[in-house]
Every structure is written in structure tokens, then in C-alpha cells.
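I am writing to request your help with a piece of structural work I have in hand. Here, with my thanks, is the record as I have it:
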Amino acid sequence: MILALPTTHPTPTQPATFASPSETLLSDEATDVITNNVVVAWLVANLNRIVFFIVMVIVTWIIARIVRSALTKALDRSNIPSASIFVNCARLLIWFLFLLIVLKPVFGVEPTTLVTALGVSGIALSFGLKDTISNIIGGFGLMMGKVVQPGDLISVSGYTGRVKDLTWRNTIVESRDGNEFWIPNSVLNTAGLTKMTEANESIVTLDFTARGDRDLNDTAQRIADAVEKGTADLHLEGHPCIVKYTGFSPYGAEGMVLVFAQDGLLPSTVRDTVARSMNGLDCLVLDGAASVDASAPSDHDAARGAGNTAKD
């Protein structure tokens, strides 16, 4: 008996693929870098958190800019003074909300934990930051009560000028010579504050001594005419200069000239112009007793005049 053996057909086999030595080397190096470099490994593990944090920073920054612009325009249209303290409070609130939003997804901290920590540490912070808190509250009181607004002319604690802005802690006052005085808001709430008119703030004075042997009214008129002519382009419209007498000295009558300077002019510049305008007036004592003695008759001249009178 003949047994038939089953015939077998060879099955096709998939060709084996082998990585090239260069590709295997690069893959191993990349794996080693990620594994061995702690910074890279941390970046790869926290990539989602980093991207979320960057996106939230950009979005919050854009929102803060929009709110700042809108709030500034709203304050300009309203009766509320447009000071930076309101804008800064709004920006602080926006960034605080941003911090609450990113705490859990990025840092893994519950927002309630931060709020609780701030509440517990608030008492300690209130003692350490009592001056700052006082200035902030004082700034709000000044603005909401409309005691001081940007653009006002004030004098407080020896500082005189125009209010430029109210910030978190200080009121910025700019003087005529361009100096800025940063006065704490708490000082404005406790010290005596004077709100000045434009005319009173613009007064520039110059002292003089008038000859006692001349008519004082005529001297005052001559001084006023000379100063008005010399400061025609410097004084305020509708506010002519004023000449006042304040007393007497051995050399003559003491007085002062008051000039109302235009906004933006330095007092020293106006005072220099006034002095140049008065220079040369023979009714003034320019160099003490010398100018008086030079124009007064000497004893010899007086005696000779008396002798001539006797002969006549």
C-alpha cells in the first residue's frame, strides 16, 4: 500500500526590518538626555501645566489692558476724578483672580488654602503694613470726598504746586520749577491743606526800598508802569502787578512788587525780569545809604545856600 504524503507549500514570510545603526544611536541618545537631564524631564512631565500658565498670563494681561482703557475713559466721562488709584485697584483685582484660577491646575494648591492663609496672616500684615494701608485708605478718602483731585493747586506741609496724580501711597504735586513732591496720602488727611486759586499760586514778589524824600504814590506808580512794561508777556491776563509798602527803614520806605506769573514760568525768571525792569529808577534806593547821600545836598552846599539866602 502506498501512502500519499501531504504536500506542503512554503508560506511567504514578511521581510525583517532592521533599524540602521545611526537611527538606533540617535534614539538612544534622546532617551538618555530625557532620562538623565532633570530639567528636560520636568519640562516634559509638566508641559500641559506650563502651556496653560502661559496662556492664562497672556489672556489676563490682555483683559487688564482692556479694563484699564475702559475704566480710564469711563472716569473721564463721569464726575469721579480720573486718578490712577482706581485703575490700579482694578488691575490688582484682575491679577488676584488670575492667581486663584491657576493655583489648582498649575501648582496643585486649593484656592481656599490661599484665602485662609491670607486671612490668618492678615493680622500680622496689618501691623507691618499699617502705614501703607493708611495711605491707601487715605487716598480713597481724598478722591471719593473730592478733597483733592488731579489739577488742583494746593499747599500742604510747605509744598506748593499742582496735583499731578494720586497713587497707592502718595499724592504727586508738581511745583512751578518742575520738581515733583511725593506726599504720603496720610499726611494730606492729617496736615493742614490749602487749596489755592490760580492767581494766589502764581504770585511772585520782589522787595524794594523807595527813597523817603519822594512822594510814595508817585514812586508806586512809576514802579508799576516799569514792571507792567517789562513783564507784559509774563503776567496773567487781567491781573496787573501790585505795589505795596510794608514799612520804613533808615534808608526809606520798604515795599514789594507782586506779579501774577503765567502758568509754567519759573518764579526766578519772573523775579529777574521784574528786577531788570525796575533798575535805573531814581526813586529807589539801589545801594543803601550811598544812593541817598549822593542825591542829598551836602552840609557845605546847604550852608552856602543859606548864606546866599541871607545876602538876598
In short: The beta strands are 153-156, 159-166, 170-174, 180-184, 193-195, 203-211, 242-249, 252-260. Confidence is low (pLDDT under 50) at residues 1-6, 297-312. Residues 199-295 form a domain with the Alpha-Beta Plaits fold (CATH 3.30.70.100). The chain has twelve helices and eight strands.
